[in-house]
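pinned: reference chain
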Amino acid sequence: MNPFCEIAVEEAVKLKEKKFIKEVVAVSCGPQQAQETIRTALAMGADRGIHVEVTGKDYDTLGPLQVSKIFAALAKKEDAQLVILGKQAIDGDCNQTGQMTAALLDWPQGTFASEISLEGDKVKVVREIDGGLETIKINTPAVLTADLRLNTPRYATLPNIMKAKKKKIAQVKPADLGVDITSRLELLRVDEPPQRLAGVKVETVDDLVGRLKESGTI
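pinned: its structure tokens
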């Protein structure tokens, strides 16, 4: 599981343990292997899972916009009051899904959260920003994205891993949700960075200067 998403799951479970929310639903989009990620969330304390099956070329081109459309559709279908995501994936580093989901739902958003507290029908969020910490209060329903310092995820215990195998994972396709996941981007090519040449060790400063002159650097 993406580390930031793991933090998001932990925060949702903690909110349920404090009786602020009634149910935690873990969602993942992808091929059959995505169910393993959902099982991890169930072992951490989520109540049930939803696997949105995306395979083949659709999976290869799956991006933040397509995932956001799926999450927004599920949030409406499930009548969710909070959608908590990791702030970004550690492969694409896009940092867009939470913001796009909030925009599609027209919900308030609290991104880069390092502290979350529920106060009635409002959410107080401490956000990590370049200049320090920003505290905001937003109405629910809302979309939140988890930053690194929000919490430390628990380890799933063996009994909970066994219990997770019995928890339900519903399978749906994007079309079942009325979502078109056609990508608007076309990948033209991927170029590897040029290979670095091996370095050279020199004994003295004079040798270094001589090498630099030979290479035309100075």
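why pinned: The mean pLDDT is 95. Residues 3-17 form the longest helix (15 residues).
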